[in-house]
Amino acid sequence: xxxxKYLLYLLILIVAGAIAVSIFYxxxxxxxxxxxxxxxxxxxxxxxxxxxxxxEAIADDNNGNAEDMTEEDVEDIENYYTSTSGEFNNYGxxxxxxxxxxxxxxGSRIVLTNTEADSSSAETMMIMVEKIDSFxxxxxxxxxxxxxxxxxxxxxxxxxxxxxxxxxxDQFNTEITGYVYKSGxxxxxDEDSGDDGQETEDExxxxxxxxxxxxxxxxxxxxxxxxxxxxxxxxxQDTFTGFLxxxxxxxxxxxxxxxxxxxxxxxxxxxxxxxMGRDWGRSSARSxxxxxxxxxxxxHQSTIVTVPRDLWVPITGHSEGKINGAYTMGGPELAVExxxxxxxxxxxxxxxxxxxxFIPLIDFLGGVTVEVNEDLADGFSGSYLxxxxxxxxxxxxxxxxxxxxxxxxxTTPGGAWARERExxxxxxxxYEQKTTLEKIxxxxxxGNFLLKYTWTDLDFIDILKLLPVLGNxxxxxxxxxxxxxxxxxxxxxxxxxxxEEETKQLFEEIADQ
Length: 513
Description:
Layout: H1 2-51, H2 53-61, E1 80-82, E2 91-94, E3 99-104, E4 109-114, E5 122-131, H3 142-153, E6 160-169, E7 172-187, H4 201-204, E8 205-217, E9 220-229, H5 233-244, E10 248-249, E11 264-272, E12 287-296, E13 302-306, E14 312-313, E15 321-322, H6 325-343, E16 349-353, H7 355-364, E17 368-372, E18 376-378, E19 383-385, E20 388-392, H8 394-402, H9 416-432, H10 436-441, H11 443-453, E21 455-456, H12 460-472, E22 478-482, E23 485-490, E24 493-498, H13 500-511
Parallel strand pairs: 11-16, 13-22
Antiparallel strand pairs: 1-2, 2-10, 3-4, 4-5, 5-9, 6-7, 7-8, 8-9, 11-12, 12-13, 14-15, 16-21, 17-20, 18-19, 23-24
Helix pairs in contact: 2-5, 7-8, 7-11, 8-9
């Protein structure tokens, strides 16, 4: 029995030893394979890291690429936004720290603004999702970039191209293109420019940077745009590529970044009666066309309020008089103060033009298509139009806006009331005939042209704030309202007097939009 037990124990030891040896060699071979695999992987990773050195560094600064994030990381992602559209393929990205985020229509429009930029600089980025066939100037997505580059090379931009940069956004290979230009909106500080009055444009104005890229997915195109003022090319590219490195489709990552609230803005638009060879200049002109454009920056509701030029109001520092005389007496500053006192609205900015500015501005925009609801034949303004739809050049549009010898079309009284409403219709029609993408892509050209033929207190930051909002306004939701008023002789002056209660209610409604 003892021998049998001994043999049994010996057999167990032999089997256990064989198993141990087998396990040892298996683990050794696996370790060798793992080392070899790890070595090969490290080599490949080193090569990839060298090839993508810049983009990886940028992505690290922006908390990593959203595409590489695992389920365990999802709850820890800060500032992550996801679109919620039921039409296009939804996307997500990380909003840079210190930037505000505004969205509309489930992410069809995104505006990011750097709130930590210093007083001498400004930055914004936009995402716009559109059906490809809605972009009228190009049948193919490539045409958007071609049109963008062509526009940048021509007057009034005259930009210098930035070297194209190849990048990968999600699984798509694409390019960033752009240019540097002078907009005229941003002047250098006095210490940065000379004081001898002989400065060149380069010495007076800050560099603006405009960059663009896009992705196409099915019937939709995703345009990403960057605009800045007072920032060098390298950091601008780093910011833009870093942001794009976090962009991905259907990432499945939960949204942790909500949009920021926004307010409203009021812009005073004046058309003064100087130019066209008249003896007086801009400083002595009267404002024949007076409009307040109210825009809710969050809901994108907008209203144009037309104000009669002969409206009788108090003018600070002067006696009561017609509202169109405020500009003559004290320039834009007194005009703004007078319209604020009358309406109760705070005027944020003004845009003023005259006959010499209005005509080329309309022509630059390709004319304007408007519907005229009555036959017009006025020798004073030169407006001869039959009832119906007309496409007008700058000179014809100006004649239409100046024509006050008319009966009215039933929606408003005749005379000056009809003229003021016609001018508002022209502004609205100009907005309608350009698609959102065309408005946004052509901003630098339009901004420079605007400055050439108008005078305004809008600066680059104001433009960046307004541009995406203007692109989101539905023309069908843009109301045209008039001040409730009637004609009355005041002394020897033929004036217009407003109904106080109705006017108060009008501007309260607008303020509450």
